[in-house]
Amino acid sequence: MIVALVTPNGEFGGPTTVAINQAVALQNRGHDVHIVAGQRGYAEPPAEIRGVPAQLFRVSRTVGSQSFSFLRSDDLREYLVQNGQYYDVQHIHMGRDLITLGAALQARRQRAPYFLQTHGMVKKSRHPLSRPLDALVTRKVVNDSRRVFYLTDNEKSDMGCQFPALESDGKLQHLINGVPYIDPHTLAAAGAGDERVKVVYFSRLHPRKRPELMLDLAAQLDDEGVIAEFEVRGPDGGEYARLNARAGQLIARGLNVRVGGPIATDQAITFLSQHDIFVLPSVNEPFPMAVLEAMSAGLAVVVTESCGLAPTLREHGGGLVVGHDFASLKAAVARLIEDAPYRRSLQEQAVRVVAEIFSMDAVARQLEKSYEEVGA
Known about the structure:
The chain is of the alpha/beta class. It is built from 15 helices and 16 strands. β15, α12 and β16 form a beta-alpha-beta unit. The chain starts with a strand and ends with a helix.
């Protein structure tokens, strides 16, 4: 499994979580799996992640931009030059970034079997560099891959439009994101001991995800006599200072709110299990892993209608789907806070939906089949 970046606090988000989950699931089924990635933030990079051997290499920035796209790792590139051909399969979680595009290009040069999973990161772009980059590298590595795994219908359509050969060659293949099974009895014990309802936002603190609405919820629901604890946590995407200042104002009014930084990746499920309701107010969120993690931890979730998981929640339960307006969001969260039996029914549904639909063992079996179908 190759992914651009691994950090102690999971700042690269979904692609890293998915890659690690897949690696663990495949290893549990008897395969020899390595995680190969860039890393930063470790005093000493770990030699394994959740029991899977890991080759992690220091990254640096090519230019001053804070974008992940401009990270590079010469040591990782050299490792793949020396060792890439010895892997039966290279599964690359690829975006338009120097690390994973470089990994795919190296696999192509070595004629090594490689599979791509793009997580919506290779969507149509107006960035001035995307057109020359696609002409020089992206189109070549995409078209010569064994398979390209897509998650949503929008991603499939977008990839087929950009790279028509994928559809004509039958290389586009649907692959769900899964989460590991968690014993609900263990989670119930971890979250016991406090009767006050706890509402959490757990994602990157970025304007696109609208984390400030959590503080608006805390303030307005308190004004209406709906009492709960509200917590906002995640890697800083430019909003931490503003959110923390606003939280300080609300705390001064006597509200129970907290704003904090990221949680270590291996502690995410435990952290989530100490809450009751998970809220993700972002618009056009393709397929948020944080929502699946929250459901596996037994939380009732609230997402907007443009979230990629909205159809699943509508059909199978586990949470509420709301409009993009604040009033709809507030009404849903208030209902879950005040109606304990209803909230508990959604929490039970959430655990069931994850177990039945988003099993990592099912994902691993599909990967095995895909690898074998093309002789990898």
